[in-house]
């Protein structure tokens, strides 16, 4: 059987303007009154932290400052300033953001990557937050008598998903997790492809969410869970028949008010076509599944 492959051209990465009037950075940069407005800091800073002002340079992009690691650079403005008029400190407002899982660093780095398409250079922890990464709790059961001296090749993290013994085919994933649903429209096709390619590399699954099944995902059918949710957006019979796993989301209890809400600005013509909706109009997913109010197990 011939397997069709598809070559995808990803869009060019272009920085976007910040949606916030005052971006919040990890460091606070202050230009004191001893400044003689020589403009050196404006000239040497490669990150655009400063702009020329009438009496002294203006700090316009604190969140782009490299901070204390910049001490090792030739262009470190604090040291280069002839009047020693620049002060650098940690921003106390930044330090109170977030929690152990979503730390201030993780929030700021996600913001930076969304706006620039680049990994942050400011020394932000953009991977694990303060939790140490990985699972909150993971328990390993070792064979008796072997202790911890077990070769890596004998340790398996695979999980068999269907152990009920019925007629459905057995499916095994090589890691004890899969990627949860993120809908087309709420995220871009580039994000969806990135997630499903990661799932394929890890030999696990990635859920489409309730926004439908874009055709770019078809080459990855074996690693995709298609979702049937309360709004029934993008649900297609041929998709359900083709994929290996289907996820039914009977409620959206974690969402307030009307349930899921896709802003009208995100309902592009293509998203509207996928969801059988009107472009530019906000879409709501009801929090209950109105056709199912009880579940009977036989």
Report on the architecture of this protein.
With 298 residues, the chain is of the alpha/beta class. Among the domains are: 27-95, 2-Layer Sandwich (Alpha-Beta Plaits); 153-285, no CATH class. 18% of the residues lie in helices and 12% in strands. It has seven helices and eleven strands. It has helices at 40-44, 77-80, 92-95, 104-116, 189-202, 237-242, 269-275; strands spanning 27-31, 50-51, 58-59, 86-90, 159-160, 172-173, 206-207, 224-228, 245-248, 260-262, 283-285. The strands form five sheets. The chain has a three-stranded parallel beta sheet. A hairpin with a 6-residue loop joins β2 (50-51) and β3 (58-59). The longest helix has 14 residues, at 189-202.
Question: Secondary-structure map with pairings?
Answer:
Blueprint: E1 27-31, H1 40-44, E2 50-51, E3 58-59, H2 77-80, E4 86-90, H3 92-95, H4 104-116, E5 159-160, E6 172-173, H5 189-202, E7 206-207, E8 224-228, H6 237-242, E9 245-248, E10 260-262, H7 269-275, E11 283-285
Parallel strand pairs: 7-8, 8-9
Antiparallel strand pairs: 1-4, 2-3, 5-6, 10-11
């Amino acid at each position: 059987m011939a397997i069709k492959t598809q070559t995808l051209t990803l869009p060019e990465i272009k920085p976007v303007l910040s949606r916030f009037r005052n971006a919040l950075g990890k460091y606070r940069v202050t230009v004191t009154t001893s400044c003689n407005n020589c403009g050196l800091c404006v000239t040497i800073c490669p990150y655009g932290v400063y702009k020329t002002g009438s009496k002294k340079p203006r700090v316009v992009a604190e969140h782009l400052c490299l901070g204390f690691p910049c001490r090792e650079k030739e262009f470190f403005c604090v040291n280069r300033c002839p009047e020693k008029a620049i002060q650098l400190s940690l921003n106390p407002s930044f330090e109170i953001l977030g929690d152990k899982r979503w730390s201030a660093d993780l929030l700021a780095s996600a913001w930076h990557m969304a706006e620039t398409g680049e990994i942050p250079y400011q020394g932000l922890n953009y991977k694990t937050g303060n939790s140490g990464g990985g699972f909150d709790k993971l328990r390993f059961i070792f064979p008796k008598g072997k202790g911890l001296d077990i070769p890596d090749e004998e340790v398996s993290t695979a999980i068999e998903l269907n152990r009920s013994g019925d007629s459905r085919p057995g499916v095994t994933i090589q890691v004890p997790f899969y990627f949860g649903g993120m809908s087309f429209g709420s995220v871009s096709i580039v994000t969806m492809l990135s997630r499903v390619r990661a799932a394929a590399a890890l030999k696990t699954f990635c859920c489409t969410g309730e926004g439908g099944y874009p055709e770019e995902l078809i080459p990855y059918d074996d690693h995709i869970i298609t979702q049937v949710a309360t709004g029934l957006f993008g649900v297609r019979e041929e998709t359900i028949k083709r994929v290996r796993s289907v996820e039914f989301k009977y409620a959206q209890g974690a969402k307030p008010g009307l349930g899921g809400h896709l802003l009208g600005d995100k309902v592009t013509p293509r998203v509207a076509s996928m969801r059988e909706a009107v472009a530019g109009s906000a879409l709501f997913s009801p929090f209950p599944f109105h056709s199912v109010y009880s579940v009977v197990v036989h």
